[in-house]
Amino acid sequence: MDESHSQEPVVVVYDFRDGMGPVPAHQHPNGGGWVSETVMVDATAYVSHQARVFGEAHVIESASVIGTATVCGHAWVSGRAEVAGYATVTGHAHVSEDARIYGGAQVYGHAEIAGQAQVSRLAAVSGSTYVAGTAHVSNKQVLVTGCFTSIPEGRSVIDPDLSDPDPRVGLEAV
């Protein structure tokens, strides 16, 4: 065999700025965003040019990661869910169905966002919190634990089990 024609496979690397340095990655064919070789991103999913998916995350079905959004860790985004803007979904969080995470919001821990729920405008949902239905968490609200299907805009909850005597006033919990 003529050695002048043999080529080593080209390994593309990208630095996701997560402290791991450059890792093998590629640009997703549907949108051009960077995805590490350790993730699962379906061909039907969309990862926009500046978005990033890394760690051991999954973006499946028709889910979208848009703008400069990040999905990482062991997080899952599925269905027609959307993570957009400067939002981050990480840890073991799950975002599914038609849920939307955007506007610098963060979903992490074992939180689950489903249905038509939205998390936006610098809100944070973590712990074992479940947000579904038409709930909208926004305006820097912080949810640490609980199960919510409707949250009036602007109401802040910091661990309903540990705060004031009736922290669920104004909240519809299931």
Q: How can the largest sheet be summarized? A: 9 strands, mixed
Please count the beta strands (DSSP E, at least 2 residues each). 23
Mean pLDDT: 86
Helix- and strand-based class?
mainly beta
Q: Enumerate how many helices there are, as a single number.
A: 0
What report would you give on this structure?
- With 174 residues, the protein is mainly β.
- It is built from no helices and 23 strands.
- The strands form three sheets. Strands 1-2-3-6-9-12-15-18-21 form a nine-stranded mixed β-sheet, with no helix packed on it. It has an eight-stranded mixed β-sheet with strand order 4-7-10-13-16-19-22-23, with no helix packed on it.
- The model is unreliable at 153-174 (pLDDT under 50).
Give short descriptive properties of this protein:
elongated, nine-stranded mixed sheet, 174 residues, mainly beta, 23 strands, eight-stranded mixed sheet
SSE diagram, text form:
Elements: E1 13-15, E2 22-27, E3 34-36, E4 40-41, E5 46-47, E6 52-53, E7 58-59, E8 64-65, E9 70-71, E10 76-77, E11 82-83, E12 88-89, E13 94-95, E14 100-101, E15 106-107, E16 112-113, E17 118-119, E18 124-125, E19 130-131, E20 136-137, E21 142-143, E22 147-150, E23 172-173
Could you provide a short overview of the structure?
With 174 residues, this protein is mainly beta.
